[in-house]
DNA sequence: TATTGTTATACTCTATAACTATA
DNA sequence: TATAGTTATAGAGTATAACAATA
């Protein structure tokens, strides 16, 4: 019986991960880093950030949506949403309005400039996934989408 | 032809996401927030954080691994890894050693305390996924793992 | 009393670049 | 000249709690 003295790994492929490669959180993190890296490489030059674009896009789809509901849906903390929204307002991309029936609330809409920003970048944003070569074939990609959507409790709206 | 005036959404389910629900980055973010929330709810009381545990676990599996290689494998920035490692050293969980053949480098090993920490928490950490009820059945979960592993370029080590 | 949004603070992680000591 | 790790700084995102205005 020979006991192997472990030699330190010399390259990334050498590094043992064992059960870590079966941890959902770990895999999601690696995947997200990879996706974001590709995203910035591709679209960072336009000053387009995924979180920001998502917020504007959802306001575009849901004119008059309240800040809190937007934060809840996108899983962004209310306090952070306040800062993002103020930033957008300063850039002239959104307009805020207090509705008469609840003067605590704030309804959000895109300004014409905001609509312009969204339509100018929507194609680049949404076709990004498709343009990137991935190790997954189209069928596997569709499966991955479906599983993630189910996992997070979203019914696929794009493929009804 | 009636043109519907869009009414602001009143609840999360009402919020239209359209093509956003087909964006990989968006889905990964939602999934990760969900997983991390569940993780902290479950294991936060032990001061166990996913990133930290992963680092210790990988050192445990790969004694003598260099800091840079560790950072590369876990996709943690080198500058940030320096801080994490120093923190672990201050807590007595890891030991650093400069090898003779390359005095620039630093080899990392767990101290007995570090080994104790890892073995004390490994079961809780790795069984976390399994204990959590998810909307996915076991077969779907296995599929999701396999697809994510393939996406990030990991061969499944746990199920060879 | 509870809710909507705001403010303030602190912490984590990231991004970047300049620095040291070795090679 | 290049590499391994360090330091410093700035920024994004998050977590938390206290607060004002309104319901």
Describe the structure.
The structure is a homodimer of 160-residue chains. Chain A starts with 23 loop residues before the first helix and ends in an 8-residue tail after the last helix. With 160 residues, the first copy, chain A, is mainly α. In chain A, helix 2 (50-61) crosses helix 5 and helix 3 packs across helix 4 (78-90). A 3-stranded antiparallel β-sheet of chain A has the order 1-3-2. The mean pLDDT of chain A is 91. The first copy, chain A, has helices spanning 24-43, 50-61, 67-74, 78-90, 112-131, 138-152; strands at residues 65-66, 94-97, 107-110. The first copy, chain A, has 6 helices and 3 strands. Chain A has one domain: Arc Repressor Mutant, subunit A, CATH 1.10.10. In chain A, 55% of the residues lie in helices and 6% in strands. Chains A and B meet through helix 1, helix 2, strand 1, helix 3 and helix 5 of A and helix 1, helix 2, strand 1, helix 3 and helix 5 of B. The structure holds a DNA duplex (23 and 23 nucleotides).
